[in-house]
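Entry type: protein chain
Record version: 2
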Amino acid sequence: MCGIFFYNKGQIKINDEKVLQDLHHRGPDYKKKKDLHHSVIGHTLLSIREDIDLSIQPVISSNSRFIISFNGQIYNINELKKKFNLDKNIKLDTKIILELFERLGLDSIQELKGMFAILVFDKMTNSIYAFRDNSGQKPLYYFFDNKQIFFCSEINPIFQAVRAQVSINKNILDGLRFLSNLGHNTIFDKIYKILPGEKIEFNLDNKILKKEFFFSKY
């Protein structure tokens, strides 16, 4: 279990260190953020497979196009190595994901079998992409007010940062009372959950948000 987050800078001032601290329980081994001038992407690490030094995120692809913050586990690493002729010595899920994104771009997500929440910043399109696996085992939430976006593994760090801009979502009470499917909604307005198998795209230039579902090949 790790913690991931991304936000673009704007009128709402967000304390990076506070967000990292709020996510410390998800990843107590290491914390890191990368300031992209117009935005910030961060990660708190729970190291499992490799040395901490080899597992630190966010990570940048060798072509410098993609920056990734990842939480989860990929099950078909060996199959992916064979299919795409990747280095047999790669052990880290994040490294596999980076290699695939360099080769296939966003279509890489269809090749992954596992449980995950992934944030991918694309320097070429100046867009942030958020993915949640089809099974929905790893949580991912976001705040959006048509100008700024803030993705995070948990609601609380988002609420603590934007609490002056949100209020209790009164419609949620009816949903809870009648046990209906709440969909994207959470208890706060402007804070939403990403659904299983959903991809969110936000372009930092035109501030347009797009949502669609993707399906794994496995």
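Comment: The radius of gyration is 17 Å.
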